Amino acid sequence: MVPQPTAKTACLCVRSEDKVPLTSRGSASRKRNKCSDKMIGRQSEPPWFHEGLRFQCTGCGRCCSGGPGFVWVSAEEIRCLAQHLNISLEQFRACYLRAVGDRWSLVERPNGDCVFLHAQTRQCLVYPARPKQCRSWPFWLANLRSPADWEYVCRICPGSGQGQLFSMDQILSLLWWSGLEKDGSSPSEG
What we know:
Structural class: alpha+beta
Radius of gyration: 17 Å
Low-confidence stretches: 6-35, 180-190
Strand order of the largest sheet: 2-4-3
Largest sheet: 3 strands, antiparallel
């Protein structure tokens, strides 16, 4: 039987970058990733979102459901999630992970929902310990390639385009890169 996660108030495994307030993240002097810079136009001109973008999570759960996909998790995130759920790494891997090539992704329910999305409340059951991919929504490379991509996100996510204004540097510090972009280069190259 798969253990059911329960909501907790705080993750016991907090990464150092998560302790930094959002307003102090992503200084202009921060080293930029060449692949991401190229894909969002940072080579010779500012990206189209240089004046910032608005986002305020509404807790609707739409970003955690829908068609099949991947929620990539690192070894550190796996440890944090297992600790948050108070289960062993082995139990977490057996119940909540699937191998995809040489990477790990969270499993999904048959309807496409994330395994940690509560079916009735539509709330994340591991919110304080959620992976970077989840923390960085909607600031994913695929959502920021063009204004049209962002407009699409605003149509499907009620919090996108609303609420807090994130500066360009904040967005770039949150930018999530799947590693599966068409050019095949990794974010650590360069």
